[in-house]
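Appendix B. One record, verbatim.
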Amino acid sequence: MEVNGNEKPRSYRIKLIMVLFTCMFIMGLDRSSLGIAAPVIMKELNIDAGSMGIALSAFFWTYTMFGLPAGSLADKYGAKKVLAWAAAIWSLASAATGVMGSITGIIASRLGVGVGEAAVFPVTAKIAADNFPSKERATAVGWYLSGARLGYAATPIVMGFLIAQYSWRLAFIITGLGSLIWVALWYYWYKEKETVVQEGSSVTTAEKTPKQKTPWVKLLTNRASLGIFLAKFCGDYLYYMFLTWVPSYLVMERGFSILKMGFYASLPFLTAFIVQPIMGYVSDWLIKKGFSLTVARKGVLVAAQLCASSIMIVGFVEDPMIAVAILTLNVAAGSTIGGMMFTLVTEVAPKGMTATLTGSMNTVGAIAGILAPTITGFIYKTTGSFQMALAISGVLLVFAACTVLFIIPAIKPIAVQEEQAEDSATK
């Protein structure tokens, strides 16, 4: 990392967090914009609810497919180029939604958004691993990931205003093309040259890590990897169920008006925006106080998972406002889970494979994005209630906590490289 001679490395890293925070905000807005505009689009283009449901899920098709390759590309060609191209792809695809005249075109644009956004989490995890020492990493990850939560909370306001003032078409064009400003900023500001993180507080330069063949079988079947994949799936099941069904739950089962639902559906994400970086700081603070990396990371993660599991009682609470309060706790805890999972993967990934392992983890999580909305809808159709769907999410989070405690071993880098060297030596 090239650091200006008059600029302290810590100052540079703070600026980097701000730039990544902005990236996450834009990603969150472009990801969730179609859900806000859907009623208007359905009316204007005469699209039925079933077809719009397919369009809303189309994002996850490519998001699931391209997460792992995007991470591998970032490890091979660098985070700067991959993130710049990815952001350009999803920005242009989101803008293209505004010129589509059929459901087929809208689905195609959402597939493009999924392709671009599939790279975000793997690439930013690599950037965090390359630029932040372990004792600062959870705080950094928590801060920049909170940008996505703020983006989700802002989407109803931003898209609602643009749709009301102009049209849904211009709303997509303005937000999509506006995102390209960030692409230019990133490409010309971020300097990815011989980055090495020291475990102190400085960032120095050295030779880049030599490119190496990824030992896929050993990397993906390692005990730590498998535990991370399971925990990620369970945490993302709650996350995607909330994004896709909880707003409808508040209207259909709690009797909220659309306006009231909009406020209370945004409140959990605003809370998560505050809580996520705080819990990242707590995890780093534990390290500075002498606790082991394992205790600092797994302890905060398990506590968040158990808090989030309280969603299983929401369906049995009579008072709607108590239900909202619990849901707010769930999303805040769920966001902490997300931040800690991405921090955890940077700690266990072998050198030069952070984005690859993160992409693999995010692909598993994206499968939950496909399953959670479908299973929840089927349960509601069958039972006429969201109680069982909410309970399943809670049980999965208890299982995730057990996975972190008993399957994921002590936190340290996976030793596939040493094993690979030994294999070579014996041949």
